[in-house]
Amino acid sequence: MTLAPHHKARGLPRGVPRPARELCSDCGLCDTPYIHYVRQACAFLHQQFPQLEQQSHGRARHLDREQELYFGVHEEMMAARKRQPIAGAQWTGIVTTIATTMLTRGVVEGVVCVQNSATDRFAPQPILATRPEQILAARVNKPTLSPNLSVLEEIQRSGLRRLLVIGVGCQIQALRSVQDKLGLEQLYVLGTPCVDNVNRAGLQKFLETTSRSPETVVHYEFMQDFRVHFKHEDGSTETVPFFGLKTNQLKDVFAPSCMSCFDYVNGLADLVVGYMGAPFGWQWLVVRNPKGQQMLELVLDQLETQGVSSQGDRHQAVQQSIPAYDRGVTLPMWAARLMGVLIERFGPKGLEYARFSIDSHFTRNYLYLKRHHPDKLEAQVPEFAQRIVRQYNLPD
C-alpha cells in the first residue's frame, strides 16, 4: 500500500505547532504528506511497542528475561571497533562503513542520513544519500533534534525501492508505523541509542555551560568513564565529570520529548550501534533480527570484536541519583573529579553500566511525565519501562 499522490496531501509548514505539541521530537513525519498517519505513528501520541516489535522482529521482547527487558529483542550482542578507523568519524566509523558498504554493493539504492548545514556544524540537514561521499559527509553525531523523516516525500518521488534509514528511537517508531505505505521492496534500519537531546539553542547553552571552548567543539559524548568527552578542532580532547555538570542550570535544557521517551536503546531498529554496553573505546552492537545480521556481516571482516561483559551493581548509584537530579545538585569540580575516579574504578561496567544509564533516565523521565503530563503517564510508559522503574523508590 502506498500513500495517495503527494499533491493531494501536504505536511505542515515549519513553525506550525505539531500534533504532539510541546512533546514533539521534530522527527520530520509532520513535514510530509504522511502526517495523515501521525496520530497512529507518533511515539508521543500513540505508544505501541509490543505491536511494532512483533512487526519488526517477528516477536515482542521477553519481559521476564532481564537482558531483553532492558535491551529489547536481539539475536546477538558484541563490542566492536574498526581495524582501520575512518578519519574524522566520531568513534571508528562503524555506522558510516555499514551505510557506504550497503550502498556500493547495491544492497540499497539510497540511505537516509544527516549531514550538517553549510553554516552551522551542529545544525542537522537530513538527506537521501545516493553516493558514498554524501554518507561520508554525514559522519559524526548531531546532538540536536533532527527531522530525519522529512525526506520521506523525496523517497516517494525518487522511485527508490531499497532503502537504509539511520535514525534514533522516536524517528524509527514513526517510520515503522508507516513503512508499509512507502512502496519499498526492502527497508533496512540502522539505529543509534539516543537520550537527552536538545534543540539548537539548548545545545549552545550546554556547550557554553560545560566546555572550556564551546566554539571549537567538533563533537561530544557522555561516556562509560562517567565523563563527557569533548573533541575540539585542534584534535584535543576535553573531559568533564558527570558530577561536575551544572545540573541546576541544565535541568531544563533537554527537549520535553526526550524527557518523555523510553526507547533509549532503539528497540525497533534491525541493528543498533552505540557505546553504552561496551568497554571504553569500543562500540556496542546489538543485532535484533536477520536483516541486522545481514548488515553486520557485510563489514564484519573490517572489525575487531569481543564479547560483552558486565560488572558491578548499579542500584545504589541509581537510587542516589534520583534526588540529586531532582534538587539540581552540582559538586565542586575537585569533588566531582574524585567521585568520577571512584565510580569509574568501583562502579558498574559493561552491560551493568548500560543498565545504570537506562535506570537513571527511565526514573527521571517517569517523574517528568508524572509531574508535567500525568494524563499521559499510563499510556506513554511501556510495560518494560514500568518494570524497570518499579525497582526504585521515587519521590512524588
Secondary structure topology:
Blueprint: H1 38-41, H2 49-57, H3 66-71, E1 76-82, H4 94-104, E2 110-116, E3 124-129, H5 132-136, H6 152-158, E4 162-167, H7 169-178, E5 186-191, H8 200-210, E6 217-222, E7 227-232, E8 237-241, H9 247-250, E9 271-274, E10 283-287, H10 290-297, E11 303-306, E12 310-311, H11 315-326, H12 333-346, E13 349-350, H13 351-372, H14 377-380, H15 383-389
Helix pairs in contact: 11-13
Cα distance spanning the termini: 47 Å
Oligomer: single chain
Low-confidence stretches: 1-7
- What do the pLDDT scores average to? 91
Strand proportion, as a percent range, falls in 15-25%
Strand order, largest beta sheet: 3-2-4-5-9-10-1-11
Q: Number of DSSP strands?
A: 13
Sheet/helix structural class: alpha+beta
Share of helix, binned: 25-40%
Largest sheet entry: 8 strands, mixed
Summary keywords:
disordered N terminus, 396 residues, alpha+beta
In brief, what are we looking at here?
The protein has 396 residues and is of the alpha+beta class. It contains 15 helices and 13 strands. The protein has a domain at 8-197 and 257-310.
